[in-house]
Amino acid sequence: MIGSIAAILTTFAFLPQVVRVVKTKDTESIALGMYVMQVIGIALWLAHGFHIGDLPLILANSVSFLLSGIILIYKLKYK
Amino acid sequence: MIGSIAAILTTFAFLPQVVRVVKTKDTESIALGMYVMQVIGIALWLAHGFHIGDLPLILANSVSFLLSGIILIYKLKYK
């Protein structure tokens, strides 16, 4: 139960940041390295999830991958 | 193996952002809501880790809690 709430919070934590960069196109104080590491790391979590066939891992990391991917794209586009 | 690399990447992804905010004190484009959710979510992951006695979960989330906590403190201090 605590684990599920934890998973939901850390998965959707990227959402306020996505909303902010999409609205403002301001990514000045965001570290590029953070989102490069996040996107690669989350892609590997996803691969791991498929490998062990774990649905919660696949679902949570699909959402995180999408959200942090959007932030990375905005960071690369609007430096 | 893929899971371990994934864990290391997503855990230490916060580090470039910590270095950036500590150096520049610039947190303008960082969403407060993201780090509020991260810090609470990671604290719950940590609680879950202690509950099920899983050392990797405890170690990874201790590091993430510290790093995202620093970003949250800087965001609150230098708006």
Automatic annotation (TrEMBL), chains A, B:
The chain crosses the membrane at residues 30-48, 55-74. It is a multi-pass membrane protein. It is found in: Membrane. NCBIfam families: SemiSWEET_2. Keywords: Ligase, Membrane, Transmembrane, Transmembrane helix. Its EC number is 6.3.2.3. It comes from the Bacteria. InterPro entries: PQ-loop_rpt (IPR006603), SemiSWEET (IPR047662). This is MtN3/saliva family protein. GO terms for molecular function: glutathione synthase activity. Its main location: membrane.
